[in-house]
Write a structure and sequence with these properties.
Layout: H1 2-52, H2 55-60, H3 62-92, H4 97-129
């Protein structure tokens, strides 16, 4: 009797689980449709905004032209200052990133060379330290 009741409970739980899975699948499908709808609406809105904001018309406005000139000037000024700063760093002795990388490669090469020399000397030292009878 107990096993029969357990079997009934198990089948009931199984049916409920299958029902819940079907509901989840339906919800996922609906969510996917809603997401696709939102994406398409967003694209349409973007196209509409771009149509309303004609970029060429904006560039012809005096305020935009003035901002473009200022941005170009500021960009040139920043480049000049960075060049001066870089030359000062070189004069002071600060290594550039490529110089640091080259130094690291040379250090790695020398470390490997030293390791190979040490590893070949160790067997020689062991042979010399072994007392001869």
């Amino acid at each position: 009797m107990v096993s029969e009741a357990a079997g009934q409970v198990a089948s009931f739980v199984k049916v409920q689980l299958e029902h819940a899975q079907k509901q989840i699948e339906q919800l996922e499908a609906e969510a996917q449709k809603a997401l696709q709808t939102l994406v398409s609406r967003g694209r349409e809105s973007g196209r509409e905004v771009l149509q309303r904001l004609n970029v060429n018309e904006l560039r012809e406005k005096p305020a935009v032209k003035e901002l473009e000139k200022k941005a170009t000037w500021v960009g040139g000024e920043v480049r000049q200052r960075l060049t001066v700063l870089q030359s000062r760093m070189v004069k002071v002795g600060v290594a550039s990133q490529s110089q640091v990388e080259a130094i690291n490669r040379e250090l790695d090469r020398l470390t490997q060379k030293i390791d190979s020399i040490i590893s070949t000397k160790k067997p020689e030292q062991q042979q010399q330290e072994t007392p001869k009878a």
